[in-house]
Fold this protein.
Amino acid sequence: MDFADFADRLADVEAESADLETTALVATLLADADEDLPVVVRLLLGRVVPAWDSTTLDVGPRLCHEALARAAGPNVTADDVDDRLAEEGEIGTVAESLDTGGQRGLDAFGASAPDPLTVAEVNDRLGDLAAADGSGSQDRKVDVLFGLFNRADPLSARYLARLVLSEMRIGVGEGTIRDAVAEAFDVPVEAVERALQVTNDYGAVAVRARDEGEAGLADVDLSVGRPVRAMLAQTGTAADALEAWEAVAVETKYDGARVQVHHDPADGTAVYSRNMADVTDALPELVESVEERVAVPVILDGEAIAVDDAGDPLPFQEVLRRFRRKHDVARMRDEVGVELRAFDCLHADGTDLLDAPLRERRERLGEVLSTGVSPLAITDDPDAIAAREADALDADHEGIMLKDPDSTYTPGKRGRNWLKRKPDVETLDLVVTGAEWGEGRRANHLGTFLLSARDGADDAFATIGKVATGVSDERLAELSETLEPLIRRQDGTEVEIEPSVVFEVGYEEIQESPTYESGYALRFPRFVAVREDKGPADADSLDRIERLARE
């Protein structure tokens, strides 16, 4: 498929406001994609790789603007692109307005009249972007982007620019793709949903739905080494749990970071974070402990917790120091020890366990892992639950988890089968979408951060407040270094930031307020930590904030 044809289809989708009609347009596109189907699906979602693959393009706005300027000709600079972006407010519109076809004699592909861009070629070139690393990689990335923009018609340039900056903004999320696959290839939505949960690869699922139908989707299995999304919990009480279930499985809620461990004695061990990033190299002791104790292929769900020399738990921020570490891992390991507390088993020795009840999964967990398993008790006695909670708090843990012993494991779902019970739920995980430059000694750093909650669609966020307290000067410098490459535009001292970084923020109260888009504001917000284990899709939703505000 020519990329220009793909761009025309995207424009039709973007122009459609009704959900059902949008799904129908996407379904038709998928049905027409032929051999490009897996690539088309991923590009619709703004991805070059499957969701389980943590590979990124690592292209910031400045690189994209430099490539656009170069493709537009010698009289256009990256600063000119910045200025246009400030006026238009959206990079796709800017790219579409530039005459990016005038430098063909100089393009990176070396041909004066190159063939039209295809979807497959764009995907390959974006793969080259992701693979570029080391000395000179930034220049190579600009060359690749220049070559693409130089061969793109205006509409194609609109979607190329959005794609490389992960800002597709066409109204298509994962739910739309799921429904469109079902409609295009006449398979049940439930069958598509289940296959997506198991694979986290929308392109591969679309191909299987087309080629093998419902039966093929049902045959999809977990694969050791391919992470799946973590099952999530809602807040709740022991009374909620006892009212809903005949008995309650009670576990400790650790102040750590969620991990998924994939181990195969023949192929080694990999550790993935909550957002499916590969953190194996940063946590070698987890790898060692599993390889010493597990003799069969497994996929384990659990928590990585920081511990002191006596084995007592350390605060969450300490384990995040390990997650961020790419260099000097051995030295950091000496400073902050990390241990695994496994609490679920998704696969054991060739058998998938997603559809097995929690009771059975925990039995298998105990069989494959001798130590490092989080204790579990099943009871219908509220006093016993209270005692477990008291023990957890006395041991400096966060609280307890309450689970339905008969529940299956549903990747990526935040249902009522798992409840997290903490004595004081006074923090939110919010996305940084803006900031302000500081004053005085902090003038060179971003000092006040605009926070937003998820608002329905995958790429929609609603502001809820600003946070400036709780951040040391040293931490402020680190945050500025992280956020500056994500700046989309600036107006005076205020900047807009690409939604990417999640803050854990403490607060005293949630109040109704017309000041912010959400309709709410946080009273006395305070920075707690950067949730490096979470992405924007894992942040708290506006629905949850509305529930908390009513409590």
Observations:
- Confidence is low (pLDDT under 50) at residues 104-109.
- The longest helix spans residues 202-218.
- The CA atoms of residues 184 and 239 lie 45 Å apart.
